[in-house]
Amino acid sequence: MTRPTPLPGRRVRGSQTGRPIMALLDLLGRRWALRVLWELRDGSSPTFRQLQQRCGGISSSVLADRLRELGQADLVENAGDGYLLTEQGRTLRESLAPLDDWASGWQPKASD
Locate the HTH hxlR-type domain: which residues (predicted)? Predict the structure, then answer.
């Protein structure tokens, strides 16, 4: 059974009312979703097969599901010759850049 695409205003994991941040976190928390977005960050427009190879290990059915969901969320689009980030997808990428910077310097305490 396919779950509906998490969107603002729609009931999602962690929010009965579909608060926008909860809808986004539910969408980005789905298996391979962030990897697909990451592989589209450079502005290239890989074909389905090329994107599948870049993601390494993703099945074609899961990739198709993620592309469908990310498309319904207006983050990714099929440009005919390949997939690319939409304007909203690009602003999301820019919004995630500080988190990537933070994660690069992340050094958890050593456990005892």
Answer: 19-111
